[in-house]
Every structure is written in structure tokens, then in C-alpha cells.
Amino acid sequence: MRCSRAAGYPILLALTAGLCRGQIREATLEELPERLRDAQWLAEIEQSTTRRVRDGEWDHVVYYALQSRRFTELPPVEPGESAWQWKKQGRLPDDAAARLHAFVAARADGPRHAAMRAMVWDEAQLKLEYARAMHFLYEKEWASREREGAARREYVAALYQRRGHSTDTDVTSGYGVHTGLEVLTALRPGTRIRRVLLVGPGLDWAPRMSLDEDTPPQSLQPYALADSLVRLGLAAADDLRVDCVDVNPRVVTYLNGFAGGARRLWLRETPGDSEWRHYFLALGKATGTRKGMEIAVPSHVAKGIGAWRMNVLTQRVTDGDYDLAVATNVLLYFNDRELGLALANIAHALRPGGHFLHNEPRPASEAWGRELGMPAVHARTVHFAAGGEFFDSVVLHELRK
Ligand SMILES: C[S@@+](CC[C@H](N)C(=O)[O-])C[C@H]1O[C@@H](n2cnc3c(N)ncnc32)[C@H](O)[C@@H]1O
Description:
This protein is an alpha/beta fold. It folds into 2 domains: 260 residues, Vaccinia Virus protein VP39 (Rossmann fold, 3-Layer(aba) Sandwich); 110 residues, no CATH class. The protein is built from 14 helices and 12 strands.
């Protein structure tokens, strides 16, 4: 985001760049497509976003309390299984109750436990949040099985459009983005990327599955994205800015503290097929140094990555000069109408000819893309065997000049 007031005054620009970067404003009704101009609805989205961020934070606390080995010797309780027991027994199962109690009683140990323990004022509150979290998990993991095929997929998709905002993220999302960027290099040879808007980078905080406390909380996606851009010859490390926007302040705080800290990221050994290994083994080396599973990010790269709180449904950046926008595992949280808002705000951020990469290939994203002058120019499924069978999607839009 460039400071337009300083255009033409390089010294002033240098002095004020830090202040001006990340300018965010509310989207006005007039600049939205006509059928999205509804002030009351936008106000409701603000409220529901606040509730969803809150619920997402509490989901993480519950998952952590059920699984962490840091504060108790009690065996971990798998949240999905616990949801089943909760529903069948019609009450808090004993193993979950023991863990919630241990979580509250134990002395906080480590960054996750300390931050989450500070949110909980008593066990009764945690039990209420447990029940709320289990309700969603039961619907997703068990009630959905009463349907099959497309009906089941639609049922789960509708649940995601109402659930709390998880900040879950891991290394696999970078692979889909990398694949999309390979497509971009083939489709538009000579593309140069200097400014990237990354929507919803997330934070590996306390996932529902595979909680791993050997690595501290981290947000890998912005650095993996920068690394892919440089590795594929799309960007130069010393001339790349990745502006991250996220509705969760915890994500923003983490990212803005990264450059002033140890600037280390940690990968988990993730076996997979040869193409995955090719991606995974080189990850971090184009922009930084890699020793085994540890990536050291150089200062100049880290300083090119900043973060701001922004709700992509109701807000937008002031300058539309981005070459690329990326949003993975974010759009699935929005219904079809909300998707129109997100795409309108993202289209506004791009320069003419700029690209938007995401992994939500539903008809509404295609339709909104066309309506907003940012049609999808490529879409594909990415299959990779990384620690299991995974399918992801890549959709590439291009803002027409
Ligand atoms: C599931 S995480 C995905 C993280 C990462 N992009 C990935 O693919 O691994 C979704 C992220 O999007 C953010 N998010 C959700 N709704 C948002 C909104 N309306 N505006 C901006 N960020 C949002 C969440 O806070 C969270 O950090």
C-alpha cells in the first residue's frame, strides 16, 4: 500500500512509508455491486464477524484443553470423538470433564497455555464453550454422515459458513499456492510481482487435530509465499512486500512481532509423493536458510512482511496497486453473497492485470469474478500425498485492464 500523498517525493515517502503502509478503510455502498448495497446487512456482518472470531478463539481453547500434554498426564481426548460421546451421553463426558478441570487447575506452561488460560475465568465457562464447540463438531463429523455425496458436502459447507473463525494453518496450504503460481508463470510469462495482499494468513495455534507443541505458534504462509515467488522467478527478495490482512488480532500481532524476534520458522517432517517432497525440501531456501526443519528468515525479507487487522467482507485497502492477492482456506467461511463482498474488496486492491489466487472453486466465486471484471482464468485440483491423501484446489482470477 503506497502513501499516495508522498508520490513524487521520494524522501518523504521513505520517512512515511511505515505510517502509510496498511491503510484500510470501510467499503462504501456505492462502490459495491448493486445487489450487495445493504447497510443493515453490512452492519450485521460486522457483528457476526466479531462473534465468529470470538467463537473460533474459544474452539482453540477447547481443543487445546482436550489434547495438550503440557499441563496434565491425562490421555488426550480427540475432539471429534468427544463430540460423539457428548451427544450420546447428553452430558459432558468424564474424560473431557477431567481435562477441562486439569486445564483450569494447572499452572500455565508455554505460550499457548498461558494465553488461553488468561481467557478462562472459571471452569463453568469452559464447560459452556466445550458444549458450543462440540455442537459444531458433532454436526460436521457425525450428523453430516446421515447424508451422502453432494448433499453431505453441501451440509458441511453450510456449517462452515456459520462456524467460528479458526486460524488453523499448516505447510500444506503453501503447496496449493505454489502450484497456482507455477500456473501463473506458464500462463503469463514475464509476470513480475512486487506487492502482494495476503488475506487471512492464519496462525498455527491449537488445531483440532495433530496439536504439536514442539513448535511454537507460527504463521508460515506469508514467508512460504514469499519463498515461492522468489523460487519461481516471479519476485526479487529485496523488492517484495507482502501485506497480510486478517480479522483476528492475534494473527496480526504475531506477524508484526516476527521481524523483531528470532525470525525462525519450524516445519514438521511431512512425508509424501515426489512432487510434494520437491516442494517441501526446498521450502525456505530461496529467501532464507534452512537447517533440517528450521528456516531462518533474513531481516530484509521479514521486514517486507507486515500485517493489519481488516475484515475483507466490509473493508478494503486504500490503494489498488497490488500485483497479486492470495486467500486460501478463508472464502469457505463465507456464504455466496458474502463471497461477492470479499471478491469486490479484493478486486479493488489489484492493479489492472493483477491476479487473485484462492482455493474455493464454487460456482459463486466464478460468477462474482465475472461480474466484477476479474474472471477466473484457470482452475485445477491439486492432489498430493503429504502425510496422507490430500486434495486442494487452485483458482486463478485476473483483473481485466
Ligand atoms: C483457516 S485460516 C487459513 C490460514 C491460511 N490462509 C491457510 O490456508 O493455511 C483462516 C484465516 O482467515 C481469517 N479470516 C476469516 N474471516 C476473515 C475476514 N472476514 N477478513 C479477514 N480475515 C478473515 C481468520 O482469522 C484466519 O486467520
